[in-house]
Write a structure and sequence with these properties.
The chain has helices at about 45-50, 75-80, 95-105, 120-135, 150-160, 180-195, 230-240, 250-260, 280-285, 300-310, and strands at about 5-10, 20-30, 35-40, 60-65, 70, 80-85, 165-170, 200-205, 215-220, 225-230, 240-245, 265, 270-275, 295. It is α/β, with parallel strands linked by helices and about 325 residues long. It folds into 2 domains: about 5-235, Rossmann fold, CATH 3.40.50; about 240-300, Alpha-Beta Plaits (2-Layer Sandwich), CATH 3.30.70. It comes from Paenibacillus herberti. It holds the Pfam family ABC_tran. One of its GO terms (molecular function) is ATP hydrolysis activity.
Length: about 325
């Protein structure tokens, strides 16, 4: 897979700080990949994303974005990235379209014209396409002061994509939004990824948002603690899949599981069964004891994350 983000031994140490905020991290992100950078506050996530988007200088190491060096070719880097930061940065006295038009002219993608109808046809077509995708077509010419939080986020997505970037950086993109708005934003982002073949680089405290990532990188203390697919990380840090079984004849159920050679542990009146190489169906079909409970519990990224930051072994 072609790499569009290459980070090699990146270090950032702030003046008077005892330790680096980012301490020698290295990773690559492939074209079209959904990559999530996770970690507790102070782990170095925002510092890393700020360096990658040229808004903060590094102390040492090298970073290339879409083939361009972030220091020598900063202008080229900015032309190839879209950015949505934690805090909205819209001008509330402008309409949605005026916010986009100003952004496009600053990036040098389209020349600025005082009226929408005077803008190039390519600009108007791009705006209308994106507005249709994110659901803002009927609000393009309204002032953003009256927009809801979800509408403002959708507008920021439009604005960040107007110049057709290769990479979209999302720093806590749904912070402060309710569950319905978060779901809507991610539905639009998924559609945009498919249509634009975008590379998405995410930092978030909503761990469920990273469940669909191609790869996840967890950082603590400015260093990479674990890097891999969500399934790999969940197995390493949160343990295997478990089948939760309950029965009024618990001793009989234990005997059957012992006979099947299946590992389990008792949690009050429930047995947590670890299927190993067998499927849940294979195990349950071999049980004759009547069951009062049957749940299949998959480990989550949140469990893996908590295991890591609460002292679990980094891998």
């Amino acid at each position: 897979m072609e790499s569009v983000i290459e980070v090699n031994q990146l270090v950032k140490k702030y003046r008077k700080a005892e330790k680096p905020a980012v301490d020698g991290i290295s990773f690559e992100v492939g074209k079209g990949e959904f990559f999530a950078l996770l970690g507790p506050n102070g782990a170095g996530k925002t510092t890393t994303i700020s360096i990658l988007t040229t808004t903060l200088t590094k102390t040492s190491g090298s970073v290339r974005i879409a083939g361009w060096d972030i220091e020598k070719d900063a202008a080229q880097v900015r032309r190839n990235v879209g950015i949505i930061f934690q805090n909205p940065s819209l001008d509330l006295d402008l309409t949605a379209e005026e916010n986009i038009r100003l952004h496009a002219s600053i990036y040098g993608v389209f020349p600025y014209r005082p009226l929408y109808r005077m803008m190039p046809a390519a600009y108007r077509k791009r705006v209308e396409e994106l507005a249709e995708v994110v659901g803002l077509r009927d609000n393009l010419f309204r002032k953003t002061r009256g927009f809801s939080g979800g509408m403002k986020r959708k507008l920021e997505i439009m604005r960040s994509l107007i110049h057709k970037p290769q990479i979209l950086f999302l720093d806590e993109p749904t912070q402060g939004l309710d569950a319905s708005a978060r779901q809507s934003i991610w539905a639009y982002l998924k559609q945009l990824r498919q249509e634009e073949n975008l590379t998405v680089f995410l930092t978030t405290h909503y761990l469920e948002e990273a469940e669909e990532a191609d790869r996840v990188c967890m950082v603590t203390g400015g260093r990479i603690a674990v890097l891999g697919t969500p399934d790999k990380i969940k197995r390493q840090l949160a343990g295997p899949e478990r089948i939760m079984l309950g029965s009024e004849e618990l001793e009989s159920l234990k005997s059957e599981l012992d006979g099947l050679g299946v590992a389990y542990e008792q949690q009050q009146d429930t047995l947590a069964v670890f299927p190993g190489q067998r499927s849940a169906q294979q195990i349950v079909s071999g049980i004759r004891t009547p069951l009062s409970r049957l749940d299949i519990r998959q480990p989550t990224l949140e469990e893996a994350y908590l295991s890591l930051i609460q002292g679990g072994e980094a891998v």
